[in-house]
Amino acid sequence: MTRDDDMPQATRRRFLIEAATLAGAVGIALPLAVKPASATPESMRAAIRKVVGEAPLNKGRVKIDVPPLIENGNAVPLTISCESPMTAGDYVKAIHVFSEKNPQPNIVGVQLGPRSGRAAVSTRIRLADSQKVIAIAQMSDGSFWSNEAEVIVTLAACLEGV
Amino acid sequence: MARALINAPAKAKRGDIIEIKTLISHNMETGFRPDNTGKAVPRDIITDFICKYNGQEIFRAELFPAIAANPFLTFYTVATESGTLSFEWTGDNGFTATESVDITVE
Amino acid sequence: MKPAAAVVFATAVLGATAIAAEIPLADRKSGYEYMGRETRAMQDDDTANPGMLWVLDGEALWNRKEGAAAKSCADCHGDARASMKGVAARYPAFSTERGRPVNLEQRINICRAEQQQSTPLPFESKELLALAAYVGRQSRGMPIEIADDERTKPFLQAGRELFTQRQGQLNLSCAQCHDDNWGQKLAGAVIPQGHPTGYPLYRLEWQALGSLQRRLRNCLFGMRAVSYPSGAPEYVDLELYLMWRARGMPIETPAVRP
Question: What pLDDT does residue C21 have?
């Protein structure tokens, strides 16, 4: 039988590196030299301030569709939609999505207009851990509306080892 | 050249709201992932996406490392006239890709 | 574990391993059935399935002239939609050139060497995965049909033995999870039956398309067992047994899995 792996130390080290990568991906604190990059509720608030400025943030009008429990944080299906007639006088100008526990608070930002017809956008996002996702919509009248969703991220048991 | 996959109706009635789905091959390297030596792999992502309808911008997205590999985006537009929907992705390290589809509006 | 120790260990348990109960044909389930609604939707919609990006690349490669012979796959096989229909459902298949079963990727490389007079594509390379995905796509929905004849029997048997043999630091066999405990949970995830119906497939964990051998390597890693080099006969025997075990189940290539 041919086996390609005859260096137990290297294998062990690789396992630890993988474990560290995984820890990075799911946000487990392991005592390893991985860049301690993580958004915090504070940095998320700062990122939101950058979009909203001093305007008040109202609750509602935004709908977040995301599975409450997901199988892998690498590709989480997300749909954001807003109630709006999408006419020249009343439309959604922009939608911004934020994360609380990813390495960076920003996820995506889109710009829409009356020609969009429907204020809805779907994508697939990365979530490093179970956390809160916040979506903010900017309306043509300058008002901001928001909503949030909790997502629980589970992980498969047998992960990439090489 | 990156491979892109566009799904938009070839035909629509004037005034119809149509759905446009886009998928493009890209690793979306976050810049936060350590390599085998523990050093972070440099960020390499698509940062911007623009869709134009007969040359006029109708949708724009700014992407961050939190967008999954092989970015998938769907959005809507009102079918106004026959012509071309063009798509443009740009990103780190001079990444650029374009695609276009024709639409007939009756 | 040192290789010598691993061999002694494997030999010692091999003799003592009881044959695990095979799953009755009617009870077999694709991993698709254990997925959430959203992941299923990603597989079902070709315009949302990232695996289709590789299929499109594969189509371009199929028609591209290669090697000293300046021949494309299409020059011999014509339109893959007709000529490759059902082919992936029969692989691994016996190769008279090699005197043993070869998997689809190896078959593609045999064609490259002998017909196109070109160099083999590395295992897990984007090109080889793309061609395998394009060929595999042509069998979507068709039942897996592995030749169970005199020529393949010894290799099927070898694959079955690998499947039921305990190995690695956790002293586990494939069968203990995938024959005896499917449907149970391992950490937060359901243990699937392990039918290779959709390879090469897009795994969310990989964020890319990957081969069955890559998946098998992940399993071996999870068992803390040492893996084989890509293309090793042990992997092909195991692939052959797994495909036979999934006989009659429909091909899903390019599937999506978490």
Answer: 82
H-state helical runs in chain C: 3-16, 37-44, 51-62, 73-77, 80-83, 104-114, 126-137, 153-164, 174-178, 212-222, 233-245
Tokens describing residue B104: 């007939």
Asked if residue A29 is part of any domain, the answer here is no
Q: Tell me the pTM.
A: 0.86
Query: Residue A95 is part of a domain; what is its CATH number?
Result: 2.60.40.2470
Judge whether A147 lies within some domain. yes
Residue C149 belongs to domain spanning: 3-257
Chain C residues closer than 8 Å to B5 by CB? 47, 52-53, 56
Nearest CA distance, A56 vs chain B (angstrom): 23
According to DSSP, residue C51 is labeled H
Supply the ipTM of this predicted assembly. Answer: 0.95
CATH number at residue B67: 2.60.40.10
For the purposes of burial, counting CB atoms within 10 Å of the CB of B57, is it exposed (0-12), middle (13-18) or buried (19 or more)? Answer: middle
Q: For residue range C177-230, what is the model confidence (pLDDT) as tens digits?
A: 999 999 998 877 899 999 999 999 999 999 999 999 999 999 999 899 999 999
CB contact under 8 A, A121 and B61: yes
Query: Which domain, by its residues, includes B13?
Result: 4-105
Q: How far apart are CA B106 and CA A140, in angstroms?
A: 30
Least confident of A11-25, C15-29, C98-112, C164-178: A11-25
